[in-house]
Amino acid sequence: MPEPTTPILHIVPLGLERRLLAMLELALQDTTRRWCQLSDDASADVALLDGDAPGALVLFDQTRQRHPQRPIVVLSVREVRLKQAIPLKKPFRIDELLAVLERLRPQRPGQALQECERRDVTATPLPGVRTRVAPTPHHTQDAAQALQSEQLHELCGNAADVDLGHPRQVASVCYDPGHHLQGLLARALADGRRLGRAVRLQVPVASRTLELLPAQRLYRCALSDRQLRGICIMPLLGPHRWEALSAHEAQALLELPDAGQPLASLETLLWKVALWTARGRLPVGTDPQQPMRLRFWPNLTRLPLTPHALRIAALWEHAPVSLAETVARLAIPQRYVFAFYSACHAIGAVECAMAAANTAAITAPVPTAHRGLLQRILNVLRGAA
After folding, report:
1. Are 294 and 320 in contact (CB under 8 A)?
2. Longest dimension (CA), the chain
3. Using a CB cutoff of 8 Å and minimum separation of 24, what contacts does 22-26 make?
4. What integer pLDDT is reported at residue 338 of this predicted model?
5. Could you count the other beta carbons within 10 Å of the beta carbon of residue 101?
6. Which end of the chain is more exposed for a tag (fewer CB within 10 A), N or C?
């Protein structure tokens, strides 16, 4: 068993299918496995790549270029022939994956990189790999440990828990997105979708523009994340307008050279802006006692990972659960749940379970006695014919 003083092995997941990622998160919560945890790309010691995912070779090459000495464990149903790749054939058990990772566990800080630098890791099949995926009963490692305190504050704030049964205390942890850049983006995006046009808006406080391309789900912004984060915190003053772009202007925008301003995922922008604005709070009007459900699984391998995000997502996907119950069942600070909810809400990934049930009830055909009578008459006529 790893010693408690052993340096932690930080792993960045690349292109992992959501259920495998959730299973891995669950496995890492076991107290005997706290030598290993998920992290972001900047602080990772090892990369874990799904070799069968779309664009896997691109992800491999990008990782190798950014981090030439970083070990990359490649999961694939096919034989892996990539230099400095550590292969693990699918299907496999989580314990088998953890055994591979333990071989890379540093005995001192930075050793994982040094070990990879000293040897040329080839695609030699790993011994003892079985052909069955077995579920694990363990729970997830705390992703908060993978975030620096400054990053954690930027994404989740530092507010203490409140009594979620007390309306005034709930109001103290709510914010109005409409008073911030988040609301301005949402209004401009809704207008662009309604018109079927790309949109350009002037970023408040900064003399820069931000272009939204709803059809392509892309955006371009001349501001860095740090600059944009600062603007998200400030309330908007006065009216702000945006303009719809013509088809010719939108096409020119797509063909424009990056020039330090590459096109990026619109979902990522909305997710980050929501996290930076909410900082562990809830959009005004949110009922923490109302059961919520996950409409779709956010691409957490491409989005900033907040603490316990995978645990929360897995819980919400399984069955409708309120925010208050989520906090109680996972035994985590409210701000982590609120931050994840606010980000999911911004991209439309969550909805009220009651509203979803009502919509289904409205759209589902309702049998009536009149329709039953007509059906019986039709059946008689068919029989007579």
Report:
1. no
2. 87
3. 22/310, 22/313, 22/314, 23/94, 23/135, 23/136, 24/48, 24/94, 24/97, 25/140, 25/141, 25/143, 25/310, 25/311, 25/314, 26/136, 26/138, 26/139, 26/140, 26/311, 26/314
4. 96
5. 24
6. C
